[in-house]
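Final report, results section. Input specification for complex C-07:
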Amino acid sequence: MENKDNLRAPVSQKSLTVEKPTDLTTIGGTITVEINEKKVSVPLGTTILEACKIAGISIPTLCNHEDLCVAGVCRICVVEVEGMRTLQASCAYPITAPMKIKTSTPMVRKARRNIIDLLLSEHYGECYSCFRNGKCELQALAKEYGVDSYPYGHVDKPKYEVDNSSYSVIRDMSKCILCKRCVRTCIDLQEVGVLEAIDRGDKTHISTFLDKPLADVICINCGQCINRCPTAALRANDPSDEIWAAIDDPTKHVVIQTAPSPRAAIGEEFGLGAGHSMTRELNTALKRIGFDKVFDTNFTADLTIIEEGTELILRLYKALVKKESIALPQLTSCSPGWVKFLEHYYPEYIDNLSSAKSPQQMFGALIKTFYAKKAGIDPKDVVSVALMPCSAKKFECNRPEMNSSGYKDVDYGLTTREMARMIKEAGINLPEMPKGDFDNPFGEASGAGLIFGATGGVMEAALRSVVEFVLGVKVEDVFANANIIPLRGFEGVKYVEIPLGEKMGPVPDILKHLVPNWDWLKGVTLKVAVAHGTANAKKVMDNIKAGGKFSECHFVELMACPGGCIGGGGQPIPTTPEIRKKRAEAIYAEDESLTLRKSHENPHVVQIYEEFLTEGPCGHLSHKLLHTHYTKRGRYIA
Amino acid sequence: MLVLEKNAMTEEIELLVVKFGKSRSSLLPILQDIQRSHKHIPDFAQQEVARLLDIHPVEVYSVISFYSFLNSNAKGRNIVRLCQTITCDMAGKENVAKAIERELGIKFGETTKDNKFTLEYVNCLGMCDQGPALLINERVFPKVTPEKAVQILSEVK
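Structure output:
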């Protein structure tokens, strides 16, 4: 039987789930059902919906989502089961006995049409001005079932006020159809717990604690709810109008940095299948739109590795040699959703968070200092845009402390979806673009920076550098082809031990002023862990709190979104486990195709430490520009 | 809320969690106890219940908003509820309602200025054979007439 602990179901529902046998050869392990007179053999406990999928029969769904537990609230997936008086919701019906199922009888069609009509009678459908126009699941269903009138009426005025208090997520509850995908995402998948159904009956609406605006409750801005909303009730705060205005303003110098994950996914917005990397086509498209410079966030990802890695080495040195009490394990700080999660739920572990900024904010600080000076532009005329797979990045760039250049370091965070729309608005078909390069002085980045996009990537990138720094050997000699496979994949929490052995290398020049030699690391086993999705992060943190296995780790990578940035809240909709896997494959394949695959070998990184950050990693200037501090927010809502 | 009040509230909820057990299914009995002793469930109490049961504040608020007999905003010291369902309506609820409104000087859904009474409608109290039914705090008064209603209210402290 499969392990119930790993089931994506709320605690209250776990006891109700039907256990699926892992070994299908056991007697009674499979059941043969008849769907529309077609015989299919499925494992015991398979839902009718899954069985239909196996049989190649399509069933419309709304509240069902592959990442989430069963809800069975929208009823659009009803089917007829022989011998049953009423129609059954196929998503919530586990098959435990042979049965005859019919998916397209007059009764089923009539019921489905009725359900759609009822949903439309409550949904504020102003499709022309809606950001989901053409991508709305409700709109698609209305089309599929030939809705040509509104027998139960149609809403022509919004019922609720739009909540645009948050920097990241906008809630327009007039468009909500109460499928509760966002509720299950927030409570079960992410365990943040912002949204729930409030009130009862026809007054039911999805809202926050005491109906407060989103900015005032514990929302980590991860945007996973946006990615799962079938309509436009949830959307990201779109800054594209401001960005167009900056592009059209001849006095402004508009630069954009692009993160690794949007490239692996933006093709999906242009009709390509998941897993097509569009890096160099995107560069050309962005130039044609009118961005003055296109930079690669991977460059600062490389810089993050050097800064965060040095910080780790310093922490270990202080703990092991100087015997100072220092916060360990060090936790990554690249994911702004995760950072806010920790600030709210584990404020006592703020010292464990790496003080290094996320790559986006490092780049922001460098663009308005190093780059502006080098290019001879007044930083006040620079408009810095960041293309991110993430809605929390919009919040991050608006944090009050993110102004170490003397200006707002990053002016706008833009999601993959919004970028795709801007590209379409400019009349550009991305897949047909010629290939282009990134601009100097940050023209090249390593594969290590690239794999930041997938869960485990930051850790793998860090280890590639740390192994070479400390052991003085090529990482390829330790891990075949420099691929650290145990850190890859979508298991919720990964744990890896790396014995460093007795043979140490020389201290590289860049770190010579910080540590005298590596002798103190002899015989030490480096313990690292990787978690993605805040529900898994919570497991790791609770384990650390209880003094378990993870409290002995040295370095833990945590990402707020399932799958890491490739599954971010700003990525194309839909995002499913299968799509996440393909996007990750695209990123790892691109990494493998590069010759430069280690952060410390990036010539531009070496150059910036020679020219600008002359005191080396974690030096005075780095601390001013590339490191930050955090706020203890706590879990209470005022 | 003052810090002292908060601490007292936390202590009270901790005891309730011990009494009913630390699980999701204890949520309703705990909320009912708080409602009984405080006449409402303050924001802070909701967050403490959530913390101690390891659920989210919004889930607690969701449950409170679902049930008519749980409320997060403070109401009057006595809650007067008149049944509005069809049998009580036919038995003469309307006249009783008018008499109560006149006596208290407030409409349904309001609280008197001295904070003594909150007036509300409820749905079926299960007293259909003895309507109109009136519920004051936890006591039911069957077969209420306008005169009797005024009399009952005058006896409430």
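The interface with chain B takes residues 11-12, 187, 192-200, 207-210, 217, 635-637 of chain A (CB under 8 Å). Residues 297-320 of chain A form the longest helix (24 residues). This concludes the modelling results for the funded period.
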